[in-house]
Amino acid sequence: MKSKRHSAILKLIASENIETQEDLASLLSEQGYKVTQATVSRDIKELRLIKVQTGEGRYKYATVERAESDLQDRFISMFSSCVISISSSGNLIVIKTMPGSASVAAEAIDSMRWNEIAGSIAGDNTIFVAIKDGRSVADVARKFQKMMQ
Fold first, then answer.
1. Partners of 123 in the beta sheet?
2. CATH for the 2-68 domain, from 3.40.50.720, 3.60.15.10, 1.20.82.10, 1.10.10.10
3. Which fold is adopted by the domain 76-147?
4. Residue among 114, 120, 112 nearest 92 (CA)
5. Exposed/middle/buried for residue 111 (C-beta within 10 Å: 0-12, 13-18, 19+)
6. So what's the pLDDT on residue 67?
7. CB under 8 Å to 147, separation ≥6 — which residues?
8. Whole-prediction pTM value?
9. Residue 35 CB: number of other CB atoms within 10 A?
10. What number is the average pLDDT over the span 39-66?
Protein backbone atom coordinates (compact mmCIF):
# COMPACT_ATOMS: atom_id res chain seq x y z
CA MET A 1 0.00 0.00 0.00
CA LYS A 2 2.86 2.36 0.83
CA SER A 3 4.46 2.01 -2.61
CA LYS A 4 1.12 2.69 -4.30
CA ARG A 5 0.63 5.75 -2.11
CA HIS A 6 4.14 6.96 -2.94
CA SER A 7 3.40 6.48 -6.62
CA ALA A 8 0.17 8.44 -6.23
CA ILE A 9 2.03 11.26 -4.45
CA LEU A 10 4.61 11.49 -7.24
CA LYS A 11 1.86 11.65 -9.86
CA LEU A 12 -0.01 14.33 -7.89
CA ILE A 13 2.98 16.60 -7.41
CA ALA A 14 3.89 16.23 -11.08
CA SER A 15 0.44 17.33 -12.21
CA GLU A 16 -0.64 19.82 -9.53
CA ASN A 17 0.85 22.66 -7.52
CA ILE A 18 0.54 21.22 -4.02
CA GLU A 19 1.58 23.75 -1.42
CA THR A 20 0.92 22.05 1.93
CA GLN A 21 0.86 18.64 3.54
CA GLU A 22 -2.84 19.20 4.21
CA ASP A 23 -3.48 19.76 0.50
CA LEU A 24 -1.61 16.57 -0.32
CA ALA A 25 -3.50 14.59 2.35
CA SER A 26 -6.80 15.88 0.98
CA LEU A 27 -5.96 14.89 -2.59
CA LEU A 28 -4.82 11.45 -1.43
CA SER A 29 -8.10 11.03 0.48
CA GLU A 30 -10.01 11.87 -2.71
CA GLN A 31 -8.15 8.98 -4.35
CA GLY A 32 -9.12 6.58 -1.58
CA TYR A 33 -5.99 6.67 0.56
CA LYS A 34 -6.62 7.01 4.29
CA VAL A 35 -3.73 9.14 5.53
CA THR A 36 -2.91 11.37 8.45
CA GLN A 37 -0.73 14.45 8.37
CA ALA A 38 2.00 12.40 10.10
CA THR A 39 1.85 9.77 7.35
CA VAL A 40 2.09 12.43 4.66
CA SER A 41 5.02 14.01 6.50
CA ARG A 42 6.88 10.67 6.59
CA ASP A 43 6.10 10.07 2.91
CA ILE A 44 7.52 13.49 2.02
CA LYS A 45 10.75 12.67 3.87
CA GLU A 46 11.03 9.20 2.35
CA LEU A 47 10.44 10.53 -1.16
CA ARG A 48 12.90 13.38 -0.49
CA LEU A 49 10.42 15.98 -1.68
CA ILE A 50 11.34 19.63 -1.42
CA LYS A 51 9.48 22.88 -1.87
CA VAL A 52 10.28 24.90 -4.98
CA GLN A 53 9.05 28.28 -6.09
CA THR A 54 6.49 28.39 -8.87
CA GLY A 55 6.41 31.03 -11.59
CA GLU A 56 3.76 32.86 -9.58
CA GLY A 57 6.04 33.18 -6.54
CA ARG A 58 4.28 30.50 -4.48
CA TYR A 59 5.80 27.23 -3.29
CA LYS A 60 4.95 23.65 -4.21
CA TYR A 61 6.30 20.16 -3.57
CA ALA A 62 8.67 18.66 -6.14
CA THR A 63 11.22 15.90 -6.38
CA VAL A 64 14.86 16.86 -6.01
CA GLU A 65 15.46 15.67 -9.57
CA ARG A 66 12.73 17.93 -10.93
CA ALA A 67 14.02 20.92 -8.98
CA GLU A 68 17.55 20.31 -10.28
CA SER A 69 16.23 20.01 -13.82
CA ASP A 70 14.38 23.33 -13.51
CA LEU A 71 17.48 24.98 -12.08
CA GLN A 72 19.64 23.56 -14.86
CA ASP A 73 17.23 24.94 -17.47
CA ARG A 74 17.57 28.38 -15.88
CA PHE A 75 21.36 28.13 -15.86
CA ILE A 76 21.38 27.17 -19.54
CA SER A 77 19.19 30.17 -20.31
CA MET A 78 21.50 32.48 -18.37
CA PHE A 79 24.56 30.93 -20.06
CA SER A 80 23.14 31.44 -23.53
CA SER A 81 22.19 35.03 -22.83
CA CYS A 82 25.60 36.17 -21.58
CA VAL A 83 28.19 34.19 -23.60
CA ILE A 84 29.77 36.05 -26.50
CA SER A 85 32.34 33.56 -27.80
CA ILE A 86 33.92 30.16 -27.20
CA SER A 87 37.45 29.18 -28.22
CA SER A 88 40.04 26.66 -27.10
CA SER A 89 43.76 26.33 -26.51
CA GLY A 90 45.33 23.05 -25.45
CA ASN A 91 43.10 21.47 -22.83
CA LEU A 92 41.44 24.80 -21.99
CA ILE A 93 38.21 26.23 -23.32
CA VAL A 94 38.06 30.01 -23.12
CA ILE A 95 34.60 31.51 -22.87
CA LYS A 96 34.07 35.25 -23.27
CA THR A 97 30.97 36.76 -21.70
CA MET A 98 29.36 40.13 -21.37
CA PRO A 99 31.08 42.21 -18.65
CA GLY A 100 30.23 41.00 -15.16
CA SER A 101 28.57 37.79 -16.38
CA ALA A 102 31.36 35.23 -16.24
CA SER A 103 30.49 33.98 -12.75
CA VAL A 104 26.90 33.29 -13.81
CA ALA A 105 28.01 31.34 -16.88
CA ALA A 106 30.63 29.46 -14.83
CA GLU A 107 27.95 28.45 -12.31
CA ALA A 108 25.91 27.08 -15.21
CA ILE A 109 28.94 25.10 -16.39
CA ASP A 110 29.62 23.73 -12.91
CA SER A 111 25.96 22.74 -12.47
CA MET A 112 26.20 20.48 -15.54
CA ARG A 113 28.65 18.17 -13.75
CA TRP A 114 30.15 16.98 -17.02
CA ASN A 115 32.76 14.28 -16.44
CA GLU A 116 35.09 15.77 -19.05
CA ILE A 117 35.52 18.99 -17.05
CA ALA A 118 38.23 19.16 -14.38
CA GLY A 119 37.14 22.63 -13.23
CA SER A 120 36.47 26.20 -14.20
CA ILE A 121 37.55 29.63 -13.07
CA ALA A 122 35.79 32.87 -13.86
CA GLY A 123 36.90 36.47 -13.96
CA ASP A 124 34.69 39.40 -14.88
CA ASN A 125 34.11 38.52 -18.52
CA THR A 126 36.24 35.41 -19.14
CA ILE A 127 36.00 31.78 -18.05
CA PHE A 128 38.73 29.17 -18.32
CA VAL A 129 37.38 25.62 -18.39
CA ALA A 130 39.99 22.91 -17.86
CA ILE A 131 39.24 19.70 -19.73
CA LYS A 132 40.63 16.47 -18.23
CA ASP A 133 41.57 14.92 -21.56
CA GLY A 134 42.72 17.19 -24.38
CA ARG A 135 41.00 14.91 -26.92
CA SER A 136 37.61 15.92 -25.43
CA VAL A 137 38.05 19.66 -25.90
CA ALA A 138 36.25 19.83 -29.26
CA ASP A 139 33.31 17.76 -27.98
CA VAL A 140 32.89 19.92 -24.88
CA ALA A 141 33.16 23.10 -26.95
CA ARG A 142 30.38 21.77 -29.20
CA LYS A 143 28.22 21.12 -26.12
CA PHE A 144 28.74 24.73 -25.04
CA GLN A 145 27.81 25.91 -28.54
CA LYS A 146 24.58 23.88 -28.34
CA MET A 147 23.76 25.53 -25.00
CA MET A 148 23.95 28.90 -26.74
CA GLN A 149 21.25 27.98 -29.28
1. none
2. 1.10.10.10
3. Gyrase A; domain 2 (3.30.1360)
4. 120
5. middle
6. 65
7. 76, 79, 80, 83, 108
8. 0.58
9. 19
10. 86
Q: What is the CA radius of gyration of the chain?
A: 21
Q: Which long-range contacts (CB under 8 A, 24 or more apart) does 12-15 make?
A: 13/49, 13/60, 13/61, 13/62, 13/63, 14/66
- Cα–Cα distances (Å) from 111 to 9, 10, 25, 78, in that order, read 28, 25, 34, 12
Residue 18 near residue 27 (C-beta atoms within 8 A): yes
User: In this structure, which amino acid lies at residue 124?
Assistant: D
Q: What is the pLDDT of residues 57-106, one digit of tens each?
A: 888 888 877 766 676 777 788 888 999 999 999 999 999 999 999 998 99
Looking at residue 35, what is its pLDDT?
A: 93
Residue intervals of the chain classified under CATH 3.30.1360.40 are 76-147
According to CATH, where is 1.10.10.10 located in the chain? 2-68
Note the pLDDT tens digit of each residue in 10-36.
999 989 899 999 999 999 999 999 999
